[in-house]
Amino acid sequence: MTDANSDHGSITHWIEEIREGETGEAARVLWERYFDRLVHLARGRDRSPVVGTPYVARSRSREVTYQQDLDDWGRVRGEVALLAGRVSRDVAAEQRPVARVVVKVRYAPFLTHTHSVGLESPTTEAGAIEKAALAALDRFTERRPVRLLGVRAEFAP
Q1: What is the largest CA-CA distance in the chain?
Q2: How many Å is the Cα radius of gyration of the chain?
Q3: What residues pair up with 155 in beta bridges, in sequence order?
Q4: SS3 sequence, 100-140?
């Protein structure tokens, strides 16, 4: 197996290989590392406890990847407002109050950052969610072209 600290076994090297369409080394090493785990799962030998409690989501989010980069930050602001509206409708349908709103921006070519804003009090109110999303967007100081935008509403505990 390749040493994870060697030049040809580093995650960075594998990502570079995959980006260039050369997946051989990365696939081989990852397969070696995870094969035993997959065999155990496939044969029902996983010792993880079975839990009867249904999964409850901690948040709701929406995101969009744009075919062409957005370089007009007025438009970016409008798109974040639209995404916040969609998230607000999802939240209202569940009637679960939101405590924090997170905005994700992926700049071209592929650098992703997030900023969040906590709400004064948990709410399902669309205006408060949009206001928080726009406040989180205002925390982004770089005005580079944008490839992806996302808005996530995190439910109150």
Answers
A1: 54
A2: 21
A3: 98
A4: EEEEEEEECCCEEEEEEEEEEEEECCHHHHHHHHHHHHHCC
The answer to whether the CB of 9 falls within 8 A of the CB of 3 is yes
Q: For 45-66, what is each residue's pLDDT tens digit? A: 877 887 889 888 999 999 999 9
Each residue of 22-31: pLDDT tens digit?
666 666 777 7
Question: What b/e readout covers 70-103, taking b as 16+ CB neighbours within 10 angstroms?
Answer: beeeeebeebbeebbbebbebbeeeebebbbbbb
CATH topology of domain 59-155: Dna Ligase; domain 1 (3.30.1490)
Domain with CATH 3.30.1490.100 in the chain: 59-155
Tokens 């798109």 correspond to 79
